[in-house]
Amino acid sequence: MKFTKATSHALHTMLYLATINANKPVGVQVLAKQLNVSPTYLSKILTKLVKEGMVTSASGANGGYSLSNGWESISFLDIIDTIEGRSSLFDCYDHGPDCPIQKVMLSSEEKMEEELRKRKISDLI
User: Fold this and answer.
1) How confident is the model at residue 1 (pLDDT cuts 50, 70, 90)?
2) Transmembrane ranges (predicted)?
3) CB of 121 within 8 A of CB of 74?
4) Which of 9, 1, 8, 7 lies closest to 81, judged by CA?
5) How many CA atoms lie within 13 A of 119 on its CB side?
6) Is residue 50 within 8 Å of 56, Cβ to Cβ?
7) How far is CA 40 from CA 28, 31, 43, 44, 108, in A?
8) What count of other Cβ atoms lies within 10 Å of the Cβ of residue 59?
9) Which H or E run includes 41?
10) Rounded CA gap, 71 and 104, in Å?
């Protein structure tokens, strides 16, 4: 199992924004430099975070990105689902819901999701 680089960048972006606790929005160029990633690539990630209401964006000379109100309750799973989408990590294909392997895999996935749901970016500050 492996998450994409986009998920890593999203998690680190959220942590960075939470850590600096800026009074004004942070530009994508600053964020990209801090994360050592292309501004174009990071913009696509930020668009998803804005669409889900985790981050707000402001345009103009003093524009940029900042955490939305209530960001303290955003979980790792919320961020991962925003970037990766919501689907099962394992599919037993033609064996049906009674497959014993499927049951073990789904149970394990549920436990992982439960842990990621409990963990918040705010826990890291």
Assistant:
1) low
2) none
3) yes
4) 7
5) 13
6) yes
7) 9, 11, 5, 7, 36
8) 8
9) helix 39-51
10) 33
Residue 40 structural domain: 5-124
Distance CA 16, CA 112 (A): 24
Rounded to 10 deg, the angle between the 5-20 and 28-35 helix axes is 110
Contact call for residues 11 and 121 (beta carbons, < 8 A): yes
Q: What is the largest CA-CA distance in the chain?
A: 58
- Residue pointed to by tokens 């890291």: 124
Number of domains in the chain: 1
Per residue in 62-80, is it b (16+ CB within 10 Å) or e — as a string?
Answer: eebbbbeeebeebbbbbbb
- CATH number of the domain enclosing 82: 1.10.10.10
Q: Is the pLDDT assigned to residue 80 strictly greater than 80?
A: yes
| Tens of pLDDT, residues 29-49 | 999 999 999 999 999 999 999
Is the pLDDT at 57 greater than 70? The verdict is yes
56 phi, psi to nearest 5 deg: -110, 155
